[in-house]
Amino acid sequence: MIKIAEHIYFIEGNNRGSFPFANSMLIRDEQTILFDTGIGIEKLKELKDMVDVVINSHLHPDHMPGNWIFGDKRIMVSEIEFDQCHLKTLARRYVSRELEDNWIEFVKSTTGYRDFQPTDSFYDGEVLVFGEIEVIPVHLPGHTKAHFGFYIPDVDLVFGADIDLTFFGPWYGHRESSIKEFIRSIEDIIRLDPVIYLSGHRKPIFGRWEILEELERYRKVIEERERKILSLVDGSKDVTDLVAVSPIYGKKPYLKDFLDYWEEKMILHHLKELEEKDMVKRNGKWIRLKEV
């Protein structure tokens, strides 16, 4: 647990916060608030008696698998996802029907997930007060339709969750994901102009200029992927062929069925963007209309 500012702490998840784990933010004020529960089941058990409220950024299984540990506490999710907390419901959102059962088993076996029932919801722009610290949920869709970050104006801090500023880049591998919304969400964070940035999968970043540089670098990954996919569209490939080339993930040493599915969705999002720009069209195979 690392102190970031008065009342505010960063807790790194197992495996340095990498999937299938995630980092948390903890506020110790008149109440103790834990943001996301993907740090590891044993770490969460050590916090159980301390925590009064759990708040989830979104319902990805690396961000809320330990909610059940706090079943006798307040558990807050966004109003968008309040009735979608069952794993079967999430599987229908996140993977194909053919992969649902395997995905559910994977989540349970790797994260320790158990179903839970939220007690409260929050909404975009609501001011949450737990003592001296005020926290404002900020709707940041694109990654998922209900992805939220949290802004603490007193210290100009953003907990960006899965706008994670990792070097892999933005992840938008669901049907409900959106490249346009992801870019707008990055721009929304830039407008907040934070001094401290906490990521779901990376160590804290300090300094306005440093954070802006990282946000700009992160956004450019989307542009680089678009150029790479456009260069591969030569009239001979359908989406399955593009997934086999793997312009986004590259090597897939594990979870290949899941990664292939999510890469397909990310490629399709890019092809949709390119089609809207009149740069590609589909005629059985994808055809490039403009040069890279």
Question: What features would you describe in this structure?
Answer:
It is a single chain. The chain is an alpha/beta fold and 292 residues long. It has 2 domains: 2-220, Ribonuclease Z/Hydroxyacylglutathione hydrolase-like (Metallo-beta-lactamase, Chain A, 4-Layer Sandwich), CATH 3.60.15.10; 232-288, no CATH class. Helices cover 32% and strands 21% of the residues. The protein has 7 helices and 15 strands. The strands form 3 sheets. It has a 7-stranded mixed beta sheet, with no helix packed on it. The chain has a 6-stranded mixed beta sheet with strand order 8-9-10-11-12-13. Strand 14 (280-283) and strand 15 (285-288) form a beta hairpin. Helix 2 (87-94) packs across helix 3 and helix 4 runs antiparallel to helix 5 (208-232). The model has no long low-confidence stretch (mean pLDDT 96).
